[in-house]
Amino acid sequence: MGAELNAASVRAAAAEIADPQCAVDLARFFQVRPGGYGEGDEFLGLRVPQQRAIAKRFRGIGADEVVALLDSPVHEHRLIALFLLRGEFERALRPRSGPDWDEAAGWVGLYLDAVRRGRVNNWDLVDSSADSVLGEYCRRRGDIDVILAHAADGDLWRRRVGIIATFAHIKHADASVLLSVAPLVRDDPRDLIQKAFGWMLREIGKRVDEQTLLAYLEENAARMGRTALSYAIEHRTPEERAHFRALR
C-alpha cells in the first residue's frame, strides 16, 4: 500500500533520508546565521534530487496538505511543497479537454498567498517556482500586472519573484516583460536582486535576441550595479565586457 497523500507522510519520507552533516552544510550555504538572508531556517540535509523524488511519490496531494508543508519551519518541506504545487499547476494546464483555468488559478492563488506570508523565502524556493508557476500563468493569460507588482515590492523575496517570473516569457522569446520590470529593480543594491536581474538580462541575450541585450546595456550599463552588469555580460566577448564595464 502506498503512502497516504498528506503532509505527515511527506515529512516522514523526508525524515527517513535526513543527513545531519548535510544539514549543517546547507545551513551554512543558505546563511541561516543571525543577520543572514536565511536566518532562522531549519534543514534536514536533503539534496534537491531527493526532494524532487519525494514530490514525485506524492503526486495528487491536496492543496491543504501543500499549505501545511509550506508552513513548516523546515526548508526542505517548503521546497518539496513547491515542487508539488508546481506539478499540480502544470497538470491543470494540460488535460485533454484543454487547460482547467479555475484549477490553475487556485494553485497560483495558493502560491501568491505563500509568497505574501513569507513562506517562499529563499533564493532556491523562489527560483524553483516563480517562472514555472506565476510567470507561466501570467504568460498564458496575457496579464503581467501581478509580476510588475511583485517587482515593485520592497520585500527581498517578493521582488525576486517578480524578476524570476519574467523567465517564463524569456523562454518564449519575449524580452518585453523583463524590460518593463527593469526600471523597478535596476537600482536595488541587494546582492540577490542584482544577481537575479543580471541573470535574466543574460538570458535575453541567450534566448531572445543579442541586440536587445546589447541595446539595453548601452543605455543602462552606466547606472547598473557591478554585480548585475557582471552577470549580464558573462557570455559576451572580452572586448564587449571591457566596453560595458568602462561605461560605469
Automatic annotation (TrEMBL):
InterPro entries: ARM-type_fold, DNA_alkylation. Gene3D superfamilies: 1.25.10.90. It comes from the Bacteria. Pfam families: DNA_alkylation. This is DNA alkylation repair protein. It comes from Gordonia amicalis. The lineage of its organism: Bacteria, Bacillati, Actinomycetota, Actinomycetes, Mycobacteriales.
